[in-house]
Design goal:
The protein is of the alpha+beta class. It is built from seven helices and 19 strands. 40% of the residues are buried. The mean pLDDT is 93.
C-alpha cells in the first residue's frame, strides 16, 4: 500500500526570485518544505547559475503547470564575446577564442535570423535525454554524441546595452524549450567571434513577473511560519491566458465527477477551444469547450466554500 504524503493541503502559486546557485529542483523542494505543502512543481527550469522568475505550483495548481510552461517567457542576458566554452556559459572551460569584436550594427543584423520559428541545437551540457542518458552526464564522461535540432519560437531578440567591446546585453522573448546558452553560442558563431552567456535572468513567464516575487532571504526567514502564506497566489492566476467560463451548480457537480458539464458561453470562445470553468469564483476544471459544455481534461479538487 502506498504511503500518503504528509503535509498541508494548500493550492496556489508561489513566485520565487531565484538566486544563482541552487537548481530549480532544489528551489521547489525548499518551497515545499517551507510551506509544508504536500505537492509542488515548477513551470520552466532555470539553470543553476541563472536568476529570476521561477513559478512554483502547490497542490492543485500543479495541474495548471503545462499552461504556464507553454506561455511566452522573457530573458535578459549578458554574453561574453570572443570566447566559446564547453558549457556555453561562464561555468565551463574556454575551448575557443577570437580577437574579433563586432560593432553594434553587426550584432543587430545578426540577430534577425534568430527571430521567428527557428531550429536550435541544445547545449551538450543540458538535461536533454539521449537513449535514456542525460546529455550533461555524457558530456562529463567525454562521450562523443550529437544533439538534434529542436524547433523554437522566438518572439523578439534585441541588443539593449553594450557595456564594452567584450560584452553585450540582450533581451529575448520566446516560447517553451528555448536555451539562451544556445542563442549566445550560435550568435557568436554567426558573428565569427565566438560567445557564451555570462549572466542570465528570467524577468517574466506567462502571467507572472518578478515584481513582488518571494526572495530567497524571505523564504528562509519565514519558512514554516504563518507569515509565509501571504506569498501564495490564487491557482487561477496560472490560467489568465485561457478563457473563463462560469458554470451552473449542476455543471460544476458533473465536471467534478469527470463528466462534461454545462457552462455559460462567451463570445471569444469557439468550439474546440481550451477553457476553464469556474463556480462561485473557484476553478472547477480545465477542458475543451463543445456546444455549451466543457469536456474536462483536468479537474480541481478544491473546497466548495471558504
Amino acid at each position: 500500500m502506498a504511503r500518503r504524503r504528509k503535509g498541508r493541503d494548500i493550492s496556489g502559486w508561489v513566485i520565487v526570485d531565484k538566486p544563482a546557485g541552487p537548481t530549480s529542483t532544489a528551489v521547489v523542494n525548499k518551497v515545499r518544505w517551507a510551506f509544508e505543502a504536500k505537492k509542488a512543481g515548477h513551470a520552466g527550469t532555470l539553470d543553476p547559475a541563472a536568476t529570476g522568475l521561477l513559478a512554483i505550483a502547490l497542490g492543485e495548481a500543479t495541474k495548471t503547470v503545462p499552461y504556464v510552461t507553454d506561455a511566452l517567457k522573457a530573458y535578459r542576458f549578458t554574453i561574453r564575446l570572443g570566447q566559446a566554452t564547453n558549457t556555453d556559459d561562464a561555468e565551463g572551460e574556454v575551448i575557443a577564442e577570437s580577437d574579433q569584436r563586432p560593432e553594434d550594427d553587426a550584432i543587430r543584423a545578426a540577430l534577425e535570423p534568430f527571430v521567428g520559428d527557428i531550429l536550435q541545437v541544445p547545449p551538450k551540457y543540458s538535461a536533454v535525454k539521449i537513449d535514456g542518458e542525460r546529455a550533461y552526464a555524457l558530456a562529463r564522461e567525454e562521450e562523443d554524441f550529437e544533439l538534434a535540432a529542436r524547433p523554437l519560437y522566438v518572439d523578439s531578440l534585441e541588443l539593449v546595452e553594450r557595456p564594452d567591446a567584450d560584452t553585450a546585453v540582450l533581451e529575448m522573448v520566446c516560447g517553451k524549450g528555448g536555451y539562451v546558452r544556445s542563442i549566445a553560442r550560435d550568435l557568436g558563431d554567426t558573428l565569427g567571434c565566438r560567445a557564451h552567456v555570462l549572466e542570465l535572468r528570467r524577468t517574466w513567464s506567462g502571467p507572472f513577473d518578478t515584481e513582488g516575487a518571494l526572495t530567497w532571504e524571505t523564504l528562509e526567514a519565514q519558512a514554516r511560519t504563518p507569515e509565509l502564506d501571504v506569498h501564495i497566489r490564487p491557482l487561477e492566476e496560472g490560467l489568465v491566458d485561457l478563457p473563463r467560463l462560469p458554470c451552473t451548480p449542476e455543471g460544476a457537480t458533473r465536471l467534478r465527477n469527470g463528466n462534461p458539464g454545462m457552462v455559460m458561453a462567451a463570445p471569444d470562445v469557439d468550439y474546440g477551444d481550451t477553457a476553464w470553468a469556474a463556480y462561485q469564483g473557484k476553478p472547477v476544471a480545465i477542458g475543451i469547450y463543445r456546444s455549451g459544455e466543457l469536456h474536462p481534461a483536468r479537474v480541481f479538487n478544491l473546497p466548495e466554500t471558504e
